Structure formats: structure tokens, C-alpha cells
């Protein structure tokens, strides 16, 4: 039995999810409730960044002092703060997605179904967090608009335009991979499996690359970058085990 027939067998056991509209509404409503935890993390990070701004030790403020004069430091700090839970949720989403394909999860139907549901809801949370991470840059007094933050290579910072583009591509990739699941019956299971086997990891890599290359905090704290890189090890192991049957 190949991977496509296996996917069809698994999906046929979850008739609720075959109604794409109902499933999307259900997941979005639950995802809104789930936002409490990442928002609490955002608030804590924002408080830390605000304290650093007041002491004059914030790295971003040192590089962009005009933000404080223009009263826009709060917007950039919120954008920064949202990046932390977004990165964690991206890691968690990939971890859950890769775990589902392991033998341990496949043997337990309840655990498999619950993990998949959580995986979808975390993915929706991630899209919301990333969206507002970009939107708040509009008020950061750097000359950005909706066009510059959501269109690749239009960002105001010319030196790091490429790295911001990675983040933009990652954002649209998140939306695509999430929607493909709900419309897999129309698109075909092959498209769904291909997107989650290859597109999702690529989207995640773009997002992490964006964070490490552009994120102000990753530049300032070498430990942050080190933790981000080290946390990829379990994902690489799980991804290798998933791709191994294709060899």
C-alpha cells in the first residue's frame, strides 16, 4: 500500500473533516480561543523590550533611534514581541505534523486525530501571529505600508530586503499549506501530501531564515540564534525519517 492510499484510508475515518467549510469554521473558532497563550508570551516579551527601550539598551532602538523620537517604538516592539511566539508556534506546528507520521502516532487513532487537530489549530494561530507581526510594522515610522510588508522585495529596509522577502514567502506558504488540507478533496490527496511533505518544511525554513537573518533580537543575543538552530535537530531527525521511505 503506497502513501497515497494510506492517506485516503486515514482521511475516510474522519468524516467531519470532509466538510471543508465546517472544518475551517470549527478550527478557526477554536484557534481564536487558543490565542491566549501566544498573546501572553507576546505581552511578556513586549514588557521586556519596553524596559530595554527605557534603559536605552534595546538593539533595534540603537539602530533606528528615529523610532523613539517619532513615538513609534511601541509598534516595532509589538512586532518584535509577536515574532517570538510565532517562531515557537511554527516549530510546534512542524513538530506535530512530523510526529503524526511516526509509527507510534499511527497506532493510536485517538492520539493521531487529536494531534492532527492541534496541528491545524496551531497553524492557524501561526498565520494570525505572523499577520499582525507584519501589520504593526506599518506604525514603526520606517516608511512601511501594507504594500511593503506583504509584497516581496518592497520592504523599506533595502539592506535586508531579501530576508524580509523570505518572511513574506513563508507567510503565504503557511496560508497555502493550511488551506490545502481543507480543500484536499478538490485538489487531490497527492497535492495535499506533496504540500505537507515538501512545501511545509520549505516554508518553515524560510521563516527561520528570516528570523535569524533579520530579527533584531537574534542579532543582539547570540544565545537566541543558538537556541533556534539547536531546536531544529529533533525536526531534522523526524523529517529524515519521513523522507526515508521515498529513497
Automatic annotation (TrEMBL):
Subcellular location(s): the record lists:
Membrane
Provide the Ferric oxidoreductase domain boundaries.
102-205
Locate the coiled-coil region(s) and give their ranges. Answer: none
GO CC annotations, alphabetized: membrane
Say if the entry is tagged with keyword Transmembrane: yes
Task: Kindly state which keywords UniProt assigns to this record, in alphabetical order.
Answer: Membrane, Transmembrane, Transmembrane helix
- InterPro entries hit by this protein: Fe3_Rdtase_TM_dom
State the superkingdom.
Answer: Bacteria
Q: List membrane-spanning regions.
A: 35-53, 73-101, 122-142, 162-182, 194-212, 218-239
Q: How does it sit in the membrane?
A: Multi-pass membrane protein
Q: What is this protein called?
A: Ferric reductase-like transmembrane domain-containing protein
